[in-house]
């Protein structure tokens, strides 16, 4: 097989991959598919134009063709950035711009060996950028990313060898160059290996996405019941002497059915999403927040004592109460009731915690809603709330004093 036939086969493979990736984008709408598909399309078209040298004008088969090939490298870089959920930066155009700039230099433009060397150097720059992007991410698929970076590094080295050989040998054309094999076969092998590794990377991403969907509530984006259960078992195994307890905070939005009936289900969905954002933000890195089903939510976290758990539940309750949720033409204020249960991390049983938190939640509901109750083992007690002591009219220092007093009363509950 001669070098030109090899180029046409290579181009056909690239265009086939472009079609597959673009069709995948059509169904999934992930932008990196479109970028990679566009990259392979430019690459394939550019290679075809290079192979047609002599049958089409030199400007098209040289300047335009190589610009397209290197533009494809830039789109591959863009796809990697999008794959990692990073913004696409202007440096993706560097490989193509290096070639365009070189074409303004007469010694490069009019000498085949110098053009080949420039093309390979520009490609090396593109590969170096891709290697950097692959290796800087230490998250999921770390090993696969390293393998792909290795193949790109081999191709980087092959491009460097080609650049040196064509200049040293003063090659005159791709078809008769003594280094023609160097121009195609090592790159082709790495090209195919990179595609296979990239496919594995996509498969691992799809598997990770499916795992995430399995433990995530589709409406609110927070964990679902299964996700919370998984995190409970993870928290049990976590060694943290400063926070020896596991707290389960069970939340139920007050009068949620009335919101649906009065404002519509879309407004109800907006309330669920808004409360999920409040819960997630309040957790930060302290624990996990999720939706148990309907208007019921829960948080699971490690705490040092009862006061810490109650303070977090009260912070979530008060934040929601003071927030106005805009849903279309409706301005909605909503409250939530909470029940708290605690157990030592080493002996915590999820079913027992759920039962205890439910009892505390019912106590909060029966006491008038918009309250937090805590299960103390023998009974459920209402957590003293600062918003029920006329604090809206009190100055800041008085409200702070009442908060301290409320927490002290809460501490006494745990000593009964």
Automatic annotation (TrEMBL):
Its EC number is 2.7.7.65. The chain crosses the membrane at residues 6-26, 33-54, 60-81, 88-106, 112-135, 147-169, 181-202. It catalyses: 2 GTP = 3',3'-c-di-GMP + 2 diphosphate. CDD domains: GGDEF. It holds the Pfam family GGDEF. Residues 244-377 form the GGDEF domain. GO terms for cellular component: plasma membrane. One of its GO terms (molecular function) is diguanylate cyclase activity. Keywords: Membrane, Transmembrane, Transmembrane helix. Gene3D superfamilies: 3.30.70.270. SUPFAM superfamilies: Nucleotide cyclase. Residues 373-399 are annotated as: Disordered. InterPro entries: Diguanylate_Cyclase (IPR050469), GGDEF_dom (IPR000160), Nucleotide_cyclase (IPR029787), Rev_trsase/Diguanyl_cyclase (IPR043128). One of its GO terms (biological process) is cell adhesion involved in single-species biofilm formation. The keyword Membrane applies. PANTHER family: DIGUANYLATE CYCLASE DGCM-RELATED, REGULATORY COMPONENTS OF SENSORY TRANSDUCTION SYSTEM. This is diguanylate cyclase. It comes from Neorhizobium galegae.
